Amino acid sequence: RLNRDRDRIDGLLSSGAVSVQARDAAQTAAAAAQARAESGRARLALLRAGTRADQLAAARAEVRQAEAALASERASNDDYVLLAPIDGVVLARLLEPGDLVSPAGAVVRLGDVTAPWVRVFVPARMLPGITVGDTAAIIPPGMREGKCDQIIGRIVAINPRAEFVTRAALTEEERADLLFGVKVEIADTTQRLKPGMSATVRLFPRVATP
Length: 210
Prior knowledge:
Layout (H helix, E strand, L loop, with lengths): L1 H13 L5 H29 L4 H26 L9 E6 L14 E5 L4 E7 L11 E5 L11 E13 L8 H5 L2 E8 L13 E4 L7
Antiparallel strand pairs: 1-2, 3-6, 4-5, 4-7, 5-6
Helix pairs in contact: 1-2, 2-3
């Protein structure tokens, strides 16, 4: 376990996540705790070979104390490891090595690669023809608009309020030009689309029947 802890902290050091001083301090403390635990176990083995009951109990207590100290050092080493709640990619590192992290503070910004999505803006005149659950086609940058290059998406949300409104829409034509945000979830198993990338989205509004 000690070797695994050392390898993990060395990996954090190489990535710049911890300082050399923090690495050395953690390894020294863990090694010392490990030595105390092993020493206590050795003494207990000798005492079991022939000694009084009170000495044996004292040795057991010493072993328990050393093992507790070792567990504490291992738990302290775990504090140098950040675990993400989701699988994703690092979009930005918000802090640098040596920076003070406040409780519940963010260290990196993650992108969720398990549920990618894209937001598009559609004019008000298209809203009657689309609804949540409708299919959309996403064309990655640089790809032609052939069926083989399209990625299937699905509308999961439509904003109830218009966006990019710079002035009051007074006429019917101006209201028809208001833009509404539409969120499209992407079924991209190939991961051709990357976080922050732009793409062309084709919606398929239904034609109203008289």
